[in-house]
Design a protein that fits this description.
The chain has about 325 residues and is α+β, with helices and mostly antiparallel strands. Helices cover about 55% and strands about 10% of the residues.
Length: about 325
């Protein structure tokens, strides 16, 4: 009977459920294995508020590279799907992509483009074109496989564009739970159909009856704001992941601990500098958008206060980052 549930409450509910769901009659080996998985899941449970690191493979809608984050879905018995599949009828793409995960395919493309072998260069180009042409992370072959794999009435999680969505199947049609902030005031809009790769589904109520938004213009602006925020977050996460991947092969053998610490500190300084630049650009862009909106229509006091809070948040993050930058790395 609650209208608002905080993220902390959700984390507490999930943690309690994982503890209560422990099997009773299992062998000692199974018990130890379950307790280890439970410990790993608890360690990354807080990431559910910001984002989990999952790495898709292009061979099946349930195929992901195994990471500790996947343990959460296993323990909670929640199916995880994606629709970013290679069409098996396109032989050259099948050969180029192979059994690679997304991260492995990106590395393969870089290696192939630097190769002297023309066949490898061509293969890398084909793989790169596949990623570019399927930037929505959903293919029609993947959509067909999803429709076949998801069971009628099943509640599951759908991963796409660094997002996790609640998905279900009703009368043979896939639906995604609507969570964009543009629908905050649309109380009747609950589900959006997933029937093409372009993302322009039909909106429905809780009974899966068609329910167009009452104010499409407000919804559109809210969706655009959500897309902009999501893109900046995804870009930031991607750049952070790339910057953390230190190329250990370039570090000479026999390097002293002090020299290694200096290299790590230099990498941290570079990341901090890059972070500041991104935050400054984001603040400048937000201010520019606010000025344009203010010129188009008078802003209310509530909106002004909200934008002021948004402008303060990057400064607080910068101060935290500055503290991290000035800290010392101890090996």
């Amino acid at each position: 009977m609650m209208e608002i549930i905080t993220a902390e409450q959700l984390m507490e509910y999930l943690g309690d459920y994982i503890l209560d769901a422990k099997p009773k009659e299992i062998s000692e080996i199974q018990r130890l294995n379950y307790e280890q998985n439970m410990s790993d899941a608890m360690a990354i449970l807080h990431k559910l508020q910001t984002g989990l690191d999952v790495n898709v493979k292009f061979t099946g809608v349930r195929v992901f590279e195994y990471t500790p984050e996947c343990i959460v879905f296993d323990l909670l018995d929640i199916p995880l799907y994606h629709g970013w599949l290679v069409d098996p009828q396109i032989a050259d793409i099948v050969k180029a992509v192979g059994n690679c995960s997304y991260n492995q395919l990106v590395e393969k493309i870089i290696c192939c483009k630097q190769s002297d072998n023309s066949e490898l260069v061509s293969e890398g180009f084909v793989a790169e074109q596949f990623l570019n042409n399927t930037a929505t992370q959903l293919t029609y072959h993947g959509l067909c496989e999803l429709t076949s794999a998801v069971q009628e009435g099943e509640l599951c999680v759908f991963f796409r564009n660094n997002h996790f969505s609640t998905m279900t199947k009703y009368k043979g049609q896939l639906y995604l739970l609507v969570t964009d902030q543009g629908f905050l005031t649309e109380e009747k809009v609950v589900w959006e159909s997933l029937h093409n790769v372009d993302g322009d589904g039909n909106f429905c109520d809780s009974e899966f009856h068609l329910r167009p938004p009452s104010d499409p213009e407000t919804v559109y602006r809210g969706q655009q704001d959500q897309i902009d925020q999501d893109y900046l977050m995804a870009l930031s996460l991607q750049q952070e992941q790339q910057s953390q991947d230190i190329n250990w092969e370039q570090i000479p053998e026999g390097i002293s601990d002090l020299e290694l610490a200096k290299k790590l500190q230099e990498e941290e300084d570079r990341r901090a500098s890059q972070y500041y630049q991104e935050q400054e650009q984001a603040v400048a862009a937000a201010a520019q958008v606010q000025q344009v909106q203010g010129a188009a229509s008078p802003a209310s006091g509530k909106q002004s206060g909200s934008s002021e809070r948004k402008r303060k948040e990057p400064r607080e993050k910068e101060r935290e980052k500055e503290k991290e930058k000035n800290s010392c790395i101890i090996l």
